[in-house]
């Protein structure tokens, strides 16, 4: 399903720039959330690295828009995103669900809860990135697009390995808790991509009707 929808997206200039902008927005939100979890005097090198690379991904995806339409999507306004409402709430909803779960399971509060949420939410997002970006790149390659996300794929794979290492230090049975967070993310992602699919198909149907 995702492959088919992304095929429609890549074939349509307006949809493709909005898709890139939507991914850029989510990467930027992720970067800001990582920074928000930092403790002023005990920020690890990995946290700094992740925040910097997620910000770079947001910038890189924005720059890719220029290969399609240099005047498109200057900001993250609703009109320049796909499924704007769901996109705006996607990661915030995951954060809240994760925080409630971890608070209950580990009885954490304050900075300790923030750090745990950073670990588990980032892990879930990296699992998603490892699934989504390769599908998108396959569609780009098939369509001989000038847009590329191969560099992001490589870095996200590295991020996932680093998150696993941190989670192993956090708790010996981290995987059972991480699986619960991944379940939460899977449901939110399904709702998000369903909304995107609906919007994409409406645009395609409208264009076919006009023709």
Outline the structure in words.
- By secondary structure, the protein is mainly α.
- The chain has one domain.
- It contains 7 helices and no strands.
State the gist of this model.
The chain has 211 residues and is mainly α.
Keywords:
single chain, 211 residues, mainly alpha, 7 helices, 80% helix, 0% strand
Q: Based on CA inertia axes, which overall geometry fits?
A: elongated
Query: Mind describing the biggest β-sheet?
Result: none
Got a strand count? 0
How large is the share of residues in beta strands?
under 5%
Helix content: over 70%
Q: Which regions have little confidence, pLDDT < 50, spanning 5+ residues?
A: none
Total of helices: 7
Radius of gyration: 18 Å
Domain count? 1
